[in-house]
Specification:
This protein has helices at residues 2-14, 20-23, 31-60, 71-78, 82-116, 135-151, 154-182, 195-217. With 218 residues, the chain is mainly alpha-helical.
Length: 218
């Protein structure tokens, strides 16, 4: 049972990252048009691909043989296709690396925005003279991530990232509602449809998962 719960948490973890698109809005030519559609399209494509892979795997081998932290690898192991397993493992490593870079990109640009708003020291708001990127928070975050990964296990890091990201989602949902109440006439390039249903639902689901993961960490 606990193994199943751990896999559910891992599946939840891999759904993160779509919001990293929004942190790069400043580098988009038409953010008001492109970003909302890109986020929604990315979610749809990811969910469809995830379901298709799951259906294919259960068609290759009985689902009981997929009781593993690496079900794709387990499926081809059952078929004795070791060369396919090698390709899958290399692809998985490349995918994880790209996700880490995406998270680092998003986090650095969040620090840049906070610095410009006066919530962090102005030292973080300077961009590289050649590449025009926030290199200072990128270097600091990269060093911090290297230290954390050297001190904590992968399971602990995944749980902390889950809890931290869910907490950020809660704050964002509440902030959007407060902003709509306090400044209803503010010019908005994108308005969330059904705000008073979507935002509270996001808060409730995030609180539920956050409480579940926090209790499991104890």
């Amino acid at each position: 049972m606990s193994g199943g719960i751990d896999r559910i948490k891992h599946r939840f973890f891999v759904c993160f990252g779509y919001d990293a698109l929004t942190t790069a809005a400043e580098e988009s030519k038409y953010p008001q048009w492109d970003l909302p559609r890109a986020v929604l399209l990315l979610l749809v494509i990811s969910i469809v691909l995830y379901l298709v892979v799951s259906l294919i795997l259960t068609g290759i081998v009985p689902y009981l043989q997929l009781e593993s932290d690496a079900p794709v690898d387990a499926a081809f192991k059952a078929l004795d296709l070791d060369w396919v397993r090698s390709v899958i493992n290399i692809t998985a490593i490349a995918g994880i690396t790209s996700v880490l870079y995406a998270f680092l990109l998003g986090a650095a640009r969040i620090w840049l925005a906070l610095s410009r708003d006066g919530l962090l020291p102005k030292w973080f708001s300077y961009v590289h003279p050649r590449y025009n990127t926030p290199y200072r928070p990128t270097l600091m975050l990269g060093g911090f991530i290297a230290i954390i990964t050297g001190l904590l296990s992968l399971e602990e890091i995944a749980e902390l990232v889950n809890i931290g990201t869910l907490s950020a989602f809660i704050i964002i949902c509440i902030a959007v509602m407060f902003l709509r109440l306090r400044q209803p006439n503010l010019s908005r390039s994108f308005r969330l449809p059904l705000l008073w249903f979507v935002a509270p639902t996001g808060v409730l689901f995030s609180l539920f998962f956050n409480h579940w993961l926090a209790m499991d960490c104890r």
